[in-house]
Amino acid sequence: MKRSQLHRSSPEKIIAWRRRSKKLVAVPKPNAELDEARQAVMARSGGWCEANTPDCPPYRHVGVHAHHKRLRSQASGHDPALMLYCCAASHAWIHAHPIEAHARGLIIWTGDDNAG
Predict the structure, then answer these.
(1) Residue 108 lies in a domain
(2) By CB neighbour count within 10 A (0-12 exposed, 13-18 middle, 19+ buried), where does 85 fall?
(3) Distance between CA atoms of residues 37 and 80, nearest Å
(4) How many CB atoms lie under 10 A from the CB of residue 109?
(5) Is residue 97 included in any domain, yes or no?
(6) CA 37 from centroid of its chain's CA atoms
(7) Above 60 in pLDDT, residue 86?
(8) Distance between CA atoms of 115 and 111, rounded to whole angstroms?
């Protein structure tokens, strides 16, 4: 049996439903703490990509994502010191190459002593 959109999302995380091309799409609640952390990370970087991964262009370029070094799935919180501002290409590279990203300090695993 196919489950409806209502059963897939937890109601406490949803403030509204909007119609999008014949589908109901959940609109998540705004997260003030995350938005504040993103603003702090963007201000620290000046809006530029901080990751410098192999997929980054060889010149200074604009960042668009706030990446959590300690992944959110590991209950990282939104500490700006554990986040970096990166371009879409570097953000994709970080998640596609976690071992190399960890070696570069772009991912911090649970149990690492350099987590602070």
Answers:
(1) no
(2) buried
(3) 5
(4) 12
(5) yes
(6) 11
(7) yes
(8) 8
